[in-house]
Amino acid sequence: MPLTGQAARALIELRARIFTGRLRAGDRLAEIPLAEALGMSRTPIRLALSALQSEGLAVPAPGGGFAVRAFTVREVDDAVALRGQLEGMAARLVAEHGVSRGLSRRLHEALDQGDAALARGVLDEEALDAYGAMNTALHAAIAEAAGNAPLSRAIAAVEALPFASASALVPSPGSAPQRHRLLTFAHQQHHLLVEALEAGQGTRAEALAREHADNARRNLRLILDSGEAEGLAALITFSDAVA
Amino acid sequence: MPLTGQAARALIELRARIFTGRLRAGDRLAEIPLAEALGMSRTPIRLALSALQSEGLAVPAPGGGFAVRAFTVREVDDAVALRGQLEGMAARLVAEHGVSRGLSRRLHEALDQGDAALARGVLDEEALDAYGAMNTALHAAIAEAAGNAPLSRAIAAVEALPFASASALVPSPGSAPQRHRLLTFAHQQHHLLVEALEAGQGTRAEALAREHADNARRNLRLILDSGEAEGLAALITFSDAVA
DNA sequence: CGCGGCCATGTTGCATGCAATGGGGCTCTC
DNA sequence: GAGAGCCCCATTGCATGCAACATGGCCGCG
Lengths: 243, 243
Prior knowledge:
The structure is a homodimer.
Chain A: H1 6-19, E1 28-29, H2 31-38, H3 42-55, E2 58-60, E3 66-68, E4 71-72, H4 73-97, H5 101-119, H6 125-145, H7 149-159, H8 176-198, H9 202-225, E5 236-237
Parallel strand pairs in A: 4-5
Antiparallel strand pairs in A: 1-3, 2-3
Helix pairs in contact in A: 1-3, 2-3, 4-6, 4-7, 4-8, 4-9, 5-6, 5-8, 8-9
Chain A binds a DNA duplex through α3.
Keywords (chains A, B): DNA-binding, Transcription, Transcription regulation
Organism (chains A, B): Falsiroseomonas algicola
Protein name (chains A, B): GntR family transcriptional regulator
């Protein structure tokens, strides 16, 4: 992954602008304005746009060029379900292969951090950040430990989509007490999942991982139905599909 | 998908050269020779190389540029296992949502075509082609009918890898009688899978789809162990990994 | 007044030019 | 003779130029 290079910079910046809503769904990605805005020539922009298409964040526009992909609610929901299936596979593989001493330590560290973040009844900004980081680390540890590179790639690909990431919904939902309840429940699932992994219960681990993702799907619908879609409107089209 | 355009042509041609072994694992993908060979400038070549990287067929080379990705046996095996998990999800979704009349027709047509191709004891070239086409159609029908676009994308991505495709192993394995036995068994699994789909048995359908992929994994190992790796040596490195 | 065709313009897609970087080979020295 | 340093060159990555295409507006015509 070239951290230097204009094309990489363009890709990162474009991703950021899409995720933050500065570029909204359907917006045309014209090369010249982007090149000027990013202070580079059109060539690296073109490369970044092509990569963005591979990532699924941009779609070819009629008559050439690209536009920001419009995601339907259905599609985001489907993506989370897919993530559940993939993480379920990862969990099953880990359980079947056995949990190494190092992995066990990583998992329990994450669980402890989550417990600590949730220990106080309220979740301030700092606790939310800590929980989010813990969540990312836990899921990443399991995905890695599965030892299946194509699987890891597939998980990374689906996490590149907006709101499909494991910790995408952490900061958002509802009131503070409700949020605490939701995260507490999710973290209980984490505990059960680790328990299943260490007990070598592959099928149970897979089922728990799926249920964990389904939980995220429910929370997502909660957010959308509650009209709490702050930045979401930029990315999700509430009417019908734009493939 | 732009069917016209030099970049698209370059991408297709490069994919073909990698799959046919004309470009071997580890080969450096230098722009100028490729541009000359394909009769175009370096610009569309660069675009195609970037896309090839997204597809996982090329990796960035140290010091810039790209090289043909080297696949380990392990990685191909993992990719097929992943395909099984994904097709298992598709099968489960289809079973849960119910099989439409049109889908049922497509499925049974495929089953009949497979039966016909296998009816004669021997498998000539034509019968193999027919079986392969049937196989592709059957798997594609189920993947589509699942109605989960991110899932379809994921399946397409994993099928883009060499030997991970559903029908990649059809023409290859072993002697003619052995091949007939293997395909007959695989097709019996097709029958059972369709039965499960139409009976709404989601869990069974998922298990069958996974088992079907595991069957492909066994056949793959059979080929590799039997030294029948004709064009495979160009793509698979039998020593250790090159990420 | 409405519609069709034409032109102008903006944009894309490709080709080419140019500087920077990294590697290989040669030579000089010890 | 072996090793180290230097120079040349090939290759990449980016910038820019150019032609083709599609789009939108305007004018002329019905």
